[in-house]
Each structure stands twice: as structure tokens, then as C-alpha cells.
Design brief:
Layout: E1 16-17, H1 29-32, E2 36-37, E3 39-46, H2 52-61, E4 66-70, E5 85-87, H3 93-97, H4 104-110, H5 124-143, E6 164-166, H6 174-177, H7 183-196, E7 200-203, E8 206-212, E9 224-231, E10 234-246, H8 255-258, E11 270-271, H9 282-289, E12 294-295, H10 298-301, E13 308-309, E14 313-314, H11 332-335, E15 340-341, E16 349-351, H12 366-374, E17 392-396, H13 397-403, E18 418-421, H14 424-430, H15 442-458, E19 478-482, E20 486-487, E21 493-494, E22 501-503, E23 509-515, H16 528-544
Parallel strand pairs: 3-4, 3-10, 4-7, 10-23, 11-20
Antiparallel strand pairs: 1-2, 5-6, 8-9, 9-10, 12-21, 13-20, 14-15, 16-17, 17-19, 18-19, 22-23
Helix pairs in contact: 2-7, 2-16, 4-5, 5-16, 14-15
Length: 547
């Protein structure tokens, strides 16, 4: 039962004396006193997405005062433009409405089954906690205004019981929903509830460092006491009396950070949700400066789940398969194009930056990604040796006609991501892109197309076993469309315990520091159900901590 919330603001955001240090613990009490906090709350949350906002609501429900900061100009994070798919079970109110019997035990068994390879390397204690919190979290969403399509749920994520419900988009106004996605129905309703309960949002505030008390005999661990954020060129110091929660969204857009897990993931690979928001690992880096550990990192290299996805929207820089940018979206100028949606990869071939096919185009497995990332990085001593480089879809006017594509802006991005020419040789010569290390050899692309056309005649792909190649590339004009894979889920993050407290490299809790969402590791579950549950738990536990 939520505690009664006191909405009085008299001392909610008062200025307070510093009791903490920066990223490195302050050496003495006199140094600590040099820092003056501008604002104070019981719980301070970094990130206003699908983890941070539930954390804020939950902390307020426990009677804590809450400040949420976010570097973006709006709330929502990646979840705002997501599909709003929330498969939480365990006996939710909507499951019961459809006569579906479920339990936390069954949720746990489904997500730890030896048959479910996606979760093989998960932290079982975290998964157990997550399973136990499923039903309460889904009902929490209902209680805070989130609306769902009330149709019979589906079975997903290798489960045994129907659990998937999809949020209703918030409105028809793209200025509110950003791209009309169902995720807006999750985030805007949660935002409305959070504001009504007294959560304060500080947007355009980018966290730059965490503050931690100097260790002492009485406090050998050194508690995290607040943070500094940058706002309009100025530093803002914010004190957290009970806890700081990292909910910054993960690390996929930070090239050097992601390359710790896979050195091939160089800068040509874009991230799902961009250009709306980026996942820059700010929270992970700040926590690691305090000694925090990463957790379950093998999930990224296990070749399971959605760490990388094959784009189906080609000819645009941001071609994540579950997000097609609407030209009316307020973010469309940054997105550049909607992309041409591929429904059948028989309609094209895919080549690397030196004009050669590298794999069977219809394959959706990790073999495709390994081939894309590994075949064309080395092109002699002058070339970049890591990374796969651009992947281009090559097709002709026949494919355009079959798919009813319109190869013009705003459907394609001609500023380096889509090219057209009357001949294959001319097409290769036109391809120029910030990530294209060398001009594409015209002769190589001509040879590739000629050889592929011979496979269509022969009825078999002698190079990569593409099933019964169907269509020749022979009718001009010819097109080259950006088709480089897109990064998505952060399948590893900071080590947390079942209270979402951050744990350091010596397996000790960092007092006053919590993490949730894609910034937290241990459970490689795709999408919203993981981040919402851990956000709600982090908010509750931080609010209940001793000030």
C-alpha cells in the first residue's frame, strides 16, 4: 500500500550543504565543504525513460521526494518510440480478465529454462526477483494510467503462457508521441502520473559526475550522496539524501564502450531509437569511476537476443526494423528518411564496401551479422582493420516496381545513404559515405551482379546458398541503399543485487547507488518488461533507504 505522499514543496528542493565528493572520493572534510548543493531530494534519478520514470513514481509512492534529470529536451528515452510491448505475467489483472492462470514461479521457470538459450547466462537471483515483481509491476502501470489494447495476449520470449499486452498510443499528435508509436502510451501516461504526484523533472541536464563521501572509520564504504549535471553551460549540484538511481539507457551509442565487448562494433553501426535519443554509457562510466563492476557480459557475445538486428528499412541512416520515421514527426529532419521497407530479401543483393556479396541475403541468423562484421574490414595496410564497414543493398527498377517503392526523398536519404545510376559501373562510382573508407571498385560490383544473375539462371546460389535466387538485377536505373545492421539491446550493464544496488569489483555494495534499465546487467531480456520492473524496484528500495 503506497504511503501517503506529502506534496509540500517548502523544503523539497531546498539548497543544501555538500556532504559528498566528485567521481573520486574527497580526501578531507574541508574539501567536501567547498561544494554547495543547488537542489536536494531524497532520491535523484538519472534518466527519464522506461526505468527512470517508474522509479520516480515508486519512490514518491513511498513518501520520498524525487528529482529526475535527463540530458534530453523531453522525457521518454528509447521507450517513447518503442512498440510498447509489455509481456509481464505472474497473474496480472489483464491476464485474469482473459481467464489466464499464471504465477511468478512459472515466469521464473520460463526465463531460466535450459531450452531458452537467450537467458542461459542470466543471474538467477535477479531473474527470480524480476519474476516475483512481474504482476505487481504490470498492475502498477494500470494504476498509473497506462492503457493497453485489451485483446487476448500472446506467448512471447519462449514463454509457456500468454503474457504480451501492447500499450495504446497516447494520441494522434506526433508532437506528443514523437512518431506515433505505442511506447508513447506508456511514457506519457507515466509522466502525467509522476508530475501529478510531485516528481520534479530537470530536462537538458546532463550528469557529469557522481559524488561520494570520503571513506572513514565510521563509514568505510563511502556513500554516494549526489551528482553534478551540466545545464546551459553551468554546473548544477544535486544532493540525494537516500540514493542516486542510474537509469541512463545503456551504452550502445558509445562506440569505444561497446567495443569492449566486441571490437568489431566500430562507428558505422547506428543504434535503435536514434536520432531521438542516444545511449552513451554516462551512467556506467560514472559508476565504474567509483569502482562498480559490469555483470553478465557474456550475454553480448552469446549470439542470442537482440544486441544487433538486420535492418528492413533501407536507404536511410537509422533503419531499425521496429521504427520507421514518419515525415510528420518533429524528429524527422534528424532522421533524414523513412527508408524503403524490404519484405523479401530475394528482391536485392547485399554487398560490402568493396562491392562483393558476403552472405545469403535472406538469412536472419547471427551468421549473417558475423559475415557482415567480418568480411570487409581488412582491405590492405591502409584500411581500418576492425568493423565490417557499410553494407549496401543493390537492386534494379524491377525491385522498385514489385515493391511499389518510391526511391525519392523523403523515403530515401540522398545525403550519402541512397544512390541511383543508369549503369552498375556508374552506381559504384557514385557511392560516397562518411563510413565508406574507399571508393567502391566499379569492376568488382559489375562482376558481383553478373555472377549473381547467373545464379538466378542456374536456380542456385553457388557462393552462399541463398534459396532459389529469384530476380536478376538487370533493368536500369540501378540503386544502392544503406543496409548496415543496427545495434539495439544492451545485454550487459552494471552489476546490481536484488535491491538494484550497484555492486563494485570487490562484490561490495556501493551505498546510495542504484541502477536499473539497460544500464543494469544480469538479465538479457529484450525490451520493456525488464527495464520497467527493475526501475520500479530501484525506486522503492532507494526511497526506503536510510537518509
Amino acid at each position: 500500500m503506497p504511503k501517503k505522499v506529502n506534496n509540500s514543496r517548502r523544503d523539497f528542493f531546498r539548497k543544501g550543504a555538500a556532504v559528498g565528493a566528485g567521481v573520486a572520493a574527497l580526501a578531507s572534510e574541508s574539501e567536501a565543504q567547498k561544494l554547495r548543493y543547488d537542489q536536494t531530494a531524497d532520491v535523484v534519478i538519472i534518466g527519464a525513460g522506461a526505468s527512470g520514470v517508474p522509479a520516480a513514481i515508486m519512490a514518491r509512492d513511498q513518501g520520498a521526494t524525487v528529482i529526475v534529470i535527463d540530458a534530453h529536451h523531453d522525457i521518454g528515452g528509447h521507450a517513447m518510440v518503442s512498440g510498447g510491448r509489455i509481456p509481464l505475467g505472474g497473474g496480472t489483472r489483464l491476464q485474469k480478465k482473459f481467464g489466464i492462470a499464471d504465477s511468478a514461479d512459472q515466469v521464473f521457470l520460463d526465463h531460466t529454462s535450459v531450452k531458452n538459450k537467450e537467458f542461459r547466462f542470466g543471474d538467477r537471483e535477479l531473474i527470480r526477483m524480476w519474476a516475483d515483481e512481474n504482476a505487481a509491476t504490470f498492475d502498477f502501470l494500470l494504476d498509473n494510467g497506462v492503457l493497453f489494447n485489451e485483446v487476448a495476449p500472446e506467448i512471447v520470449n519462449g514463454g509457456s503462457i500468454p503474457r504480451l499486452f501492447i500499450a495504446v498510443p497516447y494520441s494522434d499528435n506526433l508532437n506528443e508521441t514523437i512518431n506515433g508509436s505505442p511506447g508513447s502510451g506508456l511514457m506519457r501516461h507515466l509522466e502525467k502520473s509522476a508530475r501529478a504526484k510531485g516528481v520534479k523533472f530537470l530536462l537538458k541536464h546532463r550528469m557529469t559526475r557522481l559524488h561520494r563521501e570520503a571513506s572513514s572509520g565510521q563509514n568505510p564504504a563511502g556513500r554516494v550522496t549526489g551528482l553534478t549535471a551540466s545545464f546551459e553551460g553551468k554546473e548544477v549540484h544535486i544532493q540525494a539524501r537516500r540514493g542516486v538511481i542510474i537509469a541512463t539507457g545503456g551504452h550502445t551509442a558509445n562506440v569505444e564502450f561497446r567495443r569492449m565487448f566486441d571490437p568489431r562494433l566500430t562507428d558505422e553501426y547506428q543504434t535503435a531509437g536514434e536520432p531521438w535519443t542516444k545511449q552513451m554509457a554516462e551512467g556506467e562510466l560514472a559508476a565504474m569511476d567509483l569502482g562498480a563492476s559490469m555483470w553478465a557480459t557474456n550475454n553480448i557475445a552469446s549470439e542470442r537476443g537482440y544486441s544487433i538486428t538486420k535492418t528492413i528499412h533501407i536507404g536511410c541512416k537509422y533503419g531499425y526494423r521496429n521504427l520507421k520515421w514518419d515525415p510528420k514527426s518533429p524528429m524527422f529532419d534528424g532522421a533524414g528518411a523513412t527508408g524503403l521497407t524490404v519484405r523479401n530479401f530475394q528482391d536485392l543483393i547485399m554487398v560490402n564496401q568493396i562491392g562483393q556479396r558476403f552472405w545469403n541475403e535472406v538469412d536472419e541468423s547471427y551468421d549473417f551479422f558475423n559475415a557482415a562484421l567480418g568480411t570487409n574490414g581488412n582491405m590492405g595496410k591502409e584500411a581500418k582493420r576492425n568493423g565490417g564497414g557499410p553494407i549496401w543493398a543493390i537492386f534494379d527498377s524491377g525491385a522498385v516496381e514489385r515493391n511499389k517503392w518510391d526511391p525519392r526523398p523523403p523515403y530515401v536519404d540522398r545525403s550519402g545513404y541512397f544512390f541511383t545510376a543508369d549503369t552498375i559501373a556508374e552506381l559504384a562510382a557514385k557511392i560516397a559515405n562518411p563510413y565508406q573508407l574507399h571508393p567502391m571498385p566499379s569492376a568488382a560490383l559489375e562482376d558481383t551482379v553478373k555472377r549473381y544473375n547467373s545464379f538466378v539462371d542456374a536456380g542456385g546460389d553457388a557462393d552462399f546458398n541463398k534459396p532459389a535466387p529469384k530476380y536478376k538485377i538487370e533493368k536500369g536505373p540501378f540503386h544502392a541503399a544503406w543496409s548496415t545492421p543496427i545495434l539495439h539491446d544492451c545485454l550487459a550493464g552494471l552489476r546490481i543485487n536484488t535491491k538494484c544496488q550497484v555492486v563494485d569489483i570487490r562484490s561490495k555494495v556501493i551505498p546510495g547507488l542504484y541502477a536499473c534499465g539497460e544500464s543494469a546487467g544480469g538479465f538479457a531480456l529484450h525490451g520493456l518488461p525488464r527495464v520497467i520492473v527493475f526501475g520500479r524496484v530501484a525506486g522503492r528500495e532507494a526511497a526506503l533507504a536510510k537518509a
